[in-house]
C-alpha cells in the first residue's frame, strides 16, 4: 500500500496541498472527464491563472464568492483558484432554485456569483439577475473561466484555521443552515477518508455526486494526498455512465446507498458478467445502509463495500475498513479515525468533537444550540459503539416512533423490509395517531415485476423475521418512487409525512 508522503500530510491549507502534490507528481492525472485530462501540475497552473483573473475582478482574501456549478473540471479549477486567493467560497448545489439560492446569497452576503449560464435547460444567469445577485459571471468551460497573470497575486494564505467555506445543509421544512468550515477541517475529513479506504496511487476514483456537496473537497483532498485520478460525471445516470467507468478503468465507485442499488440493478441485467470489470470497491455514506445491500454487493458485483458516516457539518466521522469482517461491514458504519471523539449520551444520541468538525453556523444562535457544554456537536443521530469501537446507527431522534409510550426504531423495520423479495426500497415513518400517539407507516418502492404487496403479507413477513408485535406497521403505502434529494439520493421522509399524514 502506498503511504501518503509526509510532506503532503503536513500541508496547512488546501492550496499548499495542491502545490506540494504538483511538485511531487506534476504529470500524473488528477481529473478525467470524457476525453479531457487534467494533471496535478495542470490543476495548479490553471487554478493560479484563474485566481489572477478573479483578482482582476476584485476578488480579495476574505471576499465571499458563491458558485453554483455542475461537476466539471472547471468547477474544481475555480474552487482551487478561490482557495489560492484566500477568498470565502460558498458552493450551492446546481439543482437548487430561487428559494434556496436566494437564501444562500442573502445570508452569506456574497459579493460575486459564478453560474454555468444555461445548464440542463435552466437559465442560471437569468435566475441570478432575478435574485439581484452581485458580480455575476459564468464559469462553465475553459473559455469562460477568468484568466490572468499570476504575477499580480498576493502570497497564498498561510493559515488553515480561518473560515473560508460556507456549505449549506439541505433544507427540508425550514431554510438551510450555512455551515462554516476551514481548510483544516476539510483537510482532516479528506485525509481520514483516504486513510480509511486504504487507496493507492494506482486506483481510479469517480465523482458521481455534485462537486458543490461537502463530498467534493473531501474527495479531492483524497486525490491530492494519494496522487490518483477520478472520473467526473456532470450528469450521472445508469446505464449511460457505465461506458465512462469502463473506459477509464474505475476501481473505486459509489456515493450512497441509492448508488449501490443502482449498480446492483445494472449487474442483475447481466448476471455473471461484471458491469465494471476493474471495480474493486464501492464506498460512500450519507444515508443508512441495510445489511442486505452489503451482502448483495459482495455476492453479485464481486467487490468490497465500505460504508461510512458523515454530514455537512463533519464530512467524515467513521468509515468502514476494506479489511474488516463482513459482520462489521454489513452492520456498522465503521470506526472513527484518530482524532475523532464520539460521545454517546444516556439517551443514545451521537455527539462529536475533532478536527473535521465545522466551526458552527452563520447564525450564532444556531451555533450555540448545536454544541454542548464540552464542545461536542449535537448530531440528532441515535446509535451505540460496539466493544470493538465500531459505530452502529439506529436512526435519528426524529425517526424514533413513539407508539403507546414505546420507542420504535424506523431503521430496524427498514432493514427487515429490505430482505423482502418484492421490496426495492423502504422508508418507515411515524404518523400522528389519536389513540397510539404515533402509528407505524411503511412506505415501499417495488422492483419491476414484483408481486403486489398487502399490509397483512408485510406484517406476516416481519413477524416471521422476528420483529416484535408492537413494532409492526399499521399502515402500508406503495409508491412508484420514494422522494429523494438531488445530492446523494437520500430519502426525504418529511415529504412522506406530509403526503400520508393527517390533512390540516
Automatic annotation (TrEMBL):
<protein>
    <submittedName>
        <fullName>Putative cyclohex-1-ene-1-carboxylate:CoA ligase</fullName>
    </submittedName>
</protein>
<dbReference type="GO" id="GO:0006631">
    <property type="term" value="P:fatty acid metabolic process"/>
</dbReference>
<dbReference type="Pfam" id="PF13193">
    <property type="entry name" value="AMP-binding_C"/>
</dbReference>
<dbReference type="InterPro" id="IPR020845">
    <property type="entry name" value="AMP-binding_CS"/>
</dbReference>
<dbReference type="InterPro" id="IPR025110">
    <property type="entry name" value="AMP-bd_C"/>
</dbReference>
<feature type="region of interest" description="Disordered">
    <location>
        <begin position="319"/>
        <end position="339"/>
    </location>
</feature>
<feature type="domain" description="AMP-binding enzyme C-terminal">
    <location>
        <begin position="412"/>
        <end position="486"/>
    </location>
</feature>
<feature type="domain" description="AMP-dependent synthetase/ligase">
    <location>
        <begin position="19"/>
        <end position="362"/>
    </location>
</feature>
<dbReference type="InterPro" id="IPR045851">
    <property type="entry name" value="AMP-bd_C_sf"/>
</dbReference>
<keyword id="KW-0436">Ligase</keyword>
<comment type="similarity">
    <text>Belongs to the ATP-dependent AMP-binding enzyme family.</text>
</comment>
<dbReference type="Pfam" id="PF00501">
    <property type="entry name" value="AMP-binding"/>
</dbReference>
<dbReference type="InterPro" id="IPR042099">
    <property type="entry name" value="ANL_N_sf"/>
</dbReference>
<dbReference type="InterPro" id="IPR000873">
    <property type="entry name" value="AMP-dep_synth/lig_dom"/>
</dbReference>
<dbReference type="GO" id="GO:0031956">
    <property type="term" value="F:medium-chain fatty acid-CoA ligase activity"/>
</dbReference>
